Amino acid sequence: MKRYLAILLLFVIVLQTDGRAKVASKAVEETLEIAAKRSGKVLSKTTEKKLGVELLEFAGKYGDDVIPLVREGGLEVLEQGAKHGDDFWRLCKQVPAASRAMALHADELIPLAKRIGPEVLEIEAKTPGMAARLVREFGDDAIKTLAKHPDDTTRLVGYAAKADSPETARLLYETYKKSSNPSAFLEHLNWKHIMAAGLSSAAIISAYQISDGVQEGLNNPETLNHTITLFFCLGFVGLVIIFSPFIFKNYLKCRKAWKDQNQEQNKNQ
After folding, report:
1. Which residue(s) pair with 163 in the sheet?
2. Residue 206 exposure: Cα atoms within 13 Å on the Cβ side
3. pLDDT in tens, 50-89
4. Domain boundaries, the chain
5. For residue 199, what are the β-bridge partners?
6. Spatial contact of 70 and 31, defined as CB atoms under 8 Å apart
7. Percent helix, strand, coil in the chain (nearest 5)?
8. Proportion of the chain above pLDDT 90, given as a percent
């Protein structure tokens, strides 16, 4: 009796193991299919089998979240994972949305991310190809700054490329960094003019004064009072200019009537 029970237990274990193997095989097959489409490739059966073994090995070493990283990043993830090892998988798992960028530019991004931090990959996930350009243009500090406003990266780098000198490009970044509303500062730069004629320091200063002038007034009551006083003075001058023709015309009418009245009185005398 015990012998039969042992055989039955072994049979159940084999069935369960076989079931898990089928599930794992199906997951690997689907993952490689999605990754191949992501990479624009068609896999032969031989290549699919080879990559499947690699995928299972990585999953066994780095965890099941390797699967979605390969799906998101493409087949190149397996290649870069084999090349760079722990650093690659650790950074990909920190910022999964950047796995495609890592798959294509790991040689450049890994040193940056190790030196500066995962913010490099956060920017890269939002604006592919921009993190390295940002560092080349403004230095490591720019990564920390733009991580708070990743959507501004493309415009900032694009404007810097149009600067009339390296000093102007640096002024652009320093002004952006100190602005109370960096995105508003960029919006006040005339991109059509910049694309046609380039970026000057005067344009940067003007945009900063417009974008931060109002905010400064709201935060500084003294500045706000000066602004309001100036507004009313200018408004009064404007009204005088607008209505001066009518005032002058009425003045001439009154003066003529007064003269006519005096002449009439003199005749009567």
Report:
1. 199
2. 8
3. 999 999 999 999 999 999 999 999 999 999 999 999 999 9
4. 22-148, 152-218
5. 163
6. yes
7. 85, 0, 15
8. 66
